[in-house]
From TrEMBL:
Pfam families: DUF5317 (PF17248). Keywords: Membrane, Transmembrane, Transmembrane helix. InterPro entries: DUF5317 (IPR035168). The chain crosses the membrane at residues 6-23, 30-49, 55-75, 82-99, 146-168. This is DUF5317 domain-containing protein.
Length: 177
C-alpha cells in the first residue's frame, strides 16, 4: 500500500507542478531508522512464510524493535506535520497489534471480499478477528480491490495520506516559496 502512496504522491506532485528533484532536499533526520524498521518487518514475514518462525515471543520482540525505530524517526521529525500524520497511523496500527499479542487482527469478510484466503497465520503477523479480539476496528478491515488487492486498516490509510501529503509538499517546495 505504501508503494501506491508513493506513486500517488509523485503523480499528484507533478500535477500540482512540483518537481521530483525537490525530494532530494527533504530535510529528514534518521531516515535509516525507517529502512531498518521495514527491513525487520520484511524479515519477520519472510521467516513466517518459510515456516521458520510463528507468531510468538521472538516476533513480538522484533515487532517492538521495529516500532521503536519507526517512532524514533517520527519523534526526530516531529516538526513536519505530515510525518506526524504518518506517525498517528503507525500508532493506530501499533495499538491494534500490541493489544492482540503482536499480531494484526484481520477481518474474514474483508479477506473474502477480495478473494484472499483466511489462512493468515502463514502469511505474516496476522490473526483473524474473533470475539476475543481487542480494538478490532483498528485492524485490517477495509478491502481494497483496485490497482491491487489489499486489506488495510484505518492506520494504514492515515499513514498513506501523511506520506502522500509529505511527498506532494516536498515536490512543490520551490513552487510554494
Amino acid at each position: 500500500m505504501f508503494v501506491l502512496a508513493i506513486i500517488f504522491g509523485v503523480i499528484i506532485g507533478y500535477i500540482l507542478k512540483g518537481r521530483l528533484s525537490n525530494l532530494e532536499s527533504m530535510e529528514l533526520k534518521g531516515i535509516y531508522l525507517i529502512g531498518f524498521g521495514f527491513a525487520i518487518e520484511f524479515v519477520i514475514i519472510l521467516l513466517i512464510r518459510k515456516n521458520i518462525f510463528t507468531a510468538g515471543i521472538n516476533t513480538l520482540f522484533l515487532d517492538i524493535l521495529m516500532y521503536l525505530l519507526i517512532f524514533t524517526f517520527i519523534f526526530l521529525n516531529r516538526k513536519n506535520r505530515y510525518i506526524v500524520i504518518m506517525g498517528i497511523g503507525f500508532m493506530l496500527n501499533a495499538l491494534a497489534i500490541f493489544s492482540n499479542g503482536g499480531t494484526m487482527p484481520v477481518s474474514t469478510s474483508a479477506l473474502k471480499a477480495i478473494g484472499f484466503s483466511t489462512n493468515v497465520h502463514t502469511e505474516g503477523l496476522y490473526t483473524l478477528i474473533n470475539a476475543n479480539t481487542n480494538l478490532s476496528f483498528l485492524g485490517d478491515t477495509i478491502p481494497i480491490d483496485f490497482i491491487g488487492r489489499f486489506v488495510v486498516s484505518l492506520g494504514d490509510i492515515i499513514s498513506a495520506i501523511g506520506l502522500i501529503l509529505f511527498i506532494v509538499t516536498s515536490m512543490r517546495k520551490s513552487v510554494l516559496k
